[in-house]
Amino acid sequence: MKSLGRHLVAEFYDCDRNVLDDVEAIEKHMKTAAHKSNATIVNTSFHRFLPYGVSGVVVISESHLTIHTWPEYGYAAVDLFTCGDDVDPWKAFDHLRNVLKAGRVHVVEHLRGKYDEIGIPEDSPHKAAV
Q: N or C: at which end does the chain have fewer Cβ atoms within 10 angstroms?
């Protein structure tokens, strides 16, 4: 089924707590995840909370990648939303799973803007996710 975008909603458990609390490392890993997925970075914003935790967003031409960490629980919530045929959110997911050293994960993929639900013909020239 064709859609405008793919949205991975991911739960990362049993992660490296030191990485989860390092705002510079998280920003670097999220930017690398964007590059690995073939996305074009537009802007980033990351913040470290006190006493611990990091939130951040990588705005990409194709949508966004976001993260919020709870180092005290070894947990990170991650959204990877990409549009178009040329960007693969699963490559970003694989990279983050590895660098966060997740012991286990749970991920669900949602198709956003399904052609048949918004009335776009299947043969539309719009570049869509498949």
A: C
The domains found in the chain, sorted by start residue, are 3-116 (3.60.90.10)
Give the tens place of pLDDT for each residue, 51-82.
999 999 999 999 999 999 999 999 999 999 99
Contact 12, 105 (CB under 8 A): yes
Q: How far apart are CA 73 and CA 56, in angstroms?
A: 18
Q: Is 80 exceeded by the pLDDT of residue 130?
A: no
Task: Note if 68 is an active site residue.
Answer: yes
Structure tokens at 43: 């802007």
Please answer whether residues 33 and 95 qualify as being in contact, where contact means their C-beta atoms are separated by less than 8 angstroms: yes
Catalytic residue among 3, 7, 37, 63: 63
Residue from 15, 29, 37, 68 carrying the catalytic annotation: 68
Q: Could you say which of 15, 29, 37, 83 is catalytic?
A: 83
How far apart are alpha carbons 100 and 87 in whole angstroms? 21
Of 112, 95, 82, 115, residue with least CA distance to 25: 95
Q: Give yes or no for a contact between 92 and 33, defined as CB atoms under 8 angstroms apart.
A: yes
